[in-house]
Input
Amino acid sequence: MKLYGSLTSPYVRKARILIQEKKVPCEFVVADAWVADSPVPALNPLGKVPVLVRDDQSVLFDSPVIVEYLDALKPPAWLPAAGEARWETLHWEALADGLLDAVVIRLLESRRPAAQQSADNIRRQEEKITRAIEFTTQHLPKGPWLMSDRFTLADLFMGVALEYTDFRYPHDWRGRHPRLGEWLAGISARPAFVETRPPG
Output
């Protein structure tokens, strides 16, 4: 199998971390979806990463589908098949992806020429980011994991989202949420997180 994606995409990073955590055989191919000769549009008509090319050359995209597929390859599954644990995991995934989306939208808006930027849009995204971090803090258990007694997809999703917030929208959210900062420090120390950290 081959996973196509960039070194800075948090959506790609989710799959890369899962591959390392579960030791799934998969080659990572660095691919920029924005360059003219990118292989990505030929694999994914949406022109987005990540893209997973399976051994039979069939293609999966994007990150929620790829993560679920990779998880299913090597038991035990980290995404429960049914019940409250499944909905709780998907709840954390939705929150983490929403946080990522807000950070990405804010970043892209801030990169537009100054005269074309929407201060209202930037403010709206920053408000979403603030609320997502506050919500996470309010629902943070006392132990080191968001669910059960071990590292799960919930921890993976939120760990990636918070680290990407630091990467693209650095601000002192830890000052208001020190316990969440301590939780993230524990997650960030895992080898799969260290080895997939974006450059720069």
